[in-house]
Amino acid sequence: MPDWLRIILAVFACYRGSELITIDRGPCDVIKNMRIKAGVYNLAEDGEPDTDLGRLFGCPWCIGIWLAGLASLLIPTRRKRDKILLWLAIAGGQAFLQSVGGRNAQ
To answer: What is the residue extent of each domain of the chain?
Structure first.
């Protein structure tokens, strides 16, 4: 498989993964219950989640950058410093897709 195709697939996988973690209920509400335990729905006075973990699991862009880091590890590169560029490129693609086609977090 060509490298460019791996990168495109990684971008789409990160987009879908971030939607799953931050918005979808999952089978038998497993993902939603994970968000509840993380504190996504325990809001402070400013309307944001109380905890750092709650803010992380409620933000598709935040989750997307971490998923992109994992995806970048699965794509072979010749130089280690290319991993950072690849990580940010995948995260940027995911953020773009999130901006133009993402659902609003519930």
So the answer is: 3-101
Dist. CA 62–CA 58, nearest whole Å:
8
Give the H/E segment covering residue 2: none
* Reported pTM: 0.88
Instruction: Dump pLDDT digits (tens) for 7-39.
Output: 999 999 999 999 999 999 989 999 999 999 999
Count CA atoms within 13 Å of residue 82 on its CB side: 8
* Amino acid (1-letter code) at residue 6: R
pLDDT in tens, 50-66: 999 999 999 999 999 99
- In this structure, the chain runs to a length of 106
Q: How many C-beta atoms surround the C-beta of residue 84 within 10 A?
A: 12
Cβ atoms of 14 and 65 within 8 Å: the answer is no
Instruction: Decide: helix, strand or coil at residue 10.
Output: helix
